[in-house]
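Thread amino acids onto this structure.
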């Protein structure tokens, strides 16, 4: 009798390679984990590398809530060239000598793009406009506008400014930057907007995501490493790392799993999703405080 393969419920932290879409990584992980139930929390552009959080089996129910957490990136912005996609994968649409741009001007431009800002996503992005992906409209040559939306850039720092010469001979500046931002922030849009503010154009030439919420690059493994030995972070551990923890007694645990809305302690008011654990340390549910009661977002117990 053959033993049925069971994949544990949990998160898989992947160090995404360049050239892969997030969907490519999910497809590859379905083969590695031998399950169809795989999803990801927040996409990464094909050019980008770094932390991509995947959920397998029951943990796929956590992903929508994890996608909303803060992200951290290291990247390179090239000043002096605009591209169709705001990154190095698109064709160059304009070139301007950027060698005279000062560090003071760069810092002033970055200050304008830090904090709570309104950002227009890149046209070649997965944003839906009237139900159609923006990149599909762009590829078909449509003229359209994407509305600006609020994002938060908690920090935007420049580590290094390097003089360079582009392939077409244009003197450019390459900025090595770090960004901490809210979900939904486009780093290539920051590159585009910084270049526009400085009057020379700009695009992103490299991007590495170093953190998604509490999950950092040191916990990520390549697809090849996962192929050799799949590393799954147990769902209870993943939930405890990402959300406030609420330990309940056995009576409350039973009520909760039977669909009863428990009274929630005041300390969780307005804190967003909260992970509920029973006395044995089992992860029961993700709940949210609503008028003093625990509204279930996803049940696991």
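Threaded sequence (301 positions):
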């Amino acid at each position: 009798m053959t033993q049925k393969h069971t994949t544990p419920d949990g998160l898989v932290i992947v160090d995404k390679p360049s050239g892969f879409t997030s969907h490519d990584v999910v497809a590859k992980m379905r083969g590695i984990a031998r399950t169809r139930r795989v999803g990801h929390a927040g996409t990464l552009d094909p050019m980008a590398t770094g932390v991509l959080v995947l959920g397998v089996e029951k943990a796929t129910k956590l992903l929508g809530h994890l996608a909303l957490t803060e992200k951290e990136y290291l990247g390179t912005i090239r000043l002096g060239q605009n591209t169709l996609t705001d990154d190095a994968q698109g064709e160059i649409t304009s070139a301007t000598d950027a060698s005279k741009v000062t560090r003071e001007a760069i810092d002033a431009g970055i200050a304008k793009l830090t904090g709570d800002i309104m950002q227009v996503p890149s046209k070649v992005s997965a944003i839906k406009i009237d139900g159609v992906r923006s990149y599909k409209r762009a590829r078909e040559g449509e003229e359209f506008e994407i509305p600006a939306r609020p994002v938060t850039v908690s920090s935007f720092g420049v580590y290094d400014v390097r003089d360079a010469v582009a392939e077409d001979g244009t003197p450019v500046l390459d900025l090595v930057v770090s960004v901490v931002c809210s979900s939904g922030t486009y780093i290539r849009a920051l590159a585009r907007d910084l270049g526009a503010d400085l009057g020379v154009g700009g695009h992103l030439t490299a991007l590495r995501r170093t953190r998604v919420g509490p999950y950092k690059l040191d916990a990520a493994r390549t697809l090849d490493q996962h192929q050799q030995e799949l590393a799954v972070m147990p769902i209870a551990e993943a939930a405890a790392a990402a959300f406030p923890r609420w330990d309940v007694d056995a009576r409350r645990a039973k009520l909760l799993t039977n669909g009863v809305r428990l009274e929630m302690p005041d300390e969780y008011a307005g804190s967003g999703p909260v992970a509920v654990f029973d006395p044995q340390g089992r992860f029961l549910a993700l709940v949210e405080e609503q008028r003093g009661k625990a509204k279930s977002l996803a049940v696991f117990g």
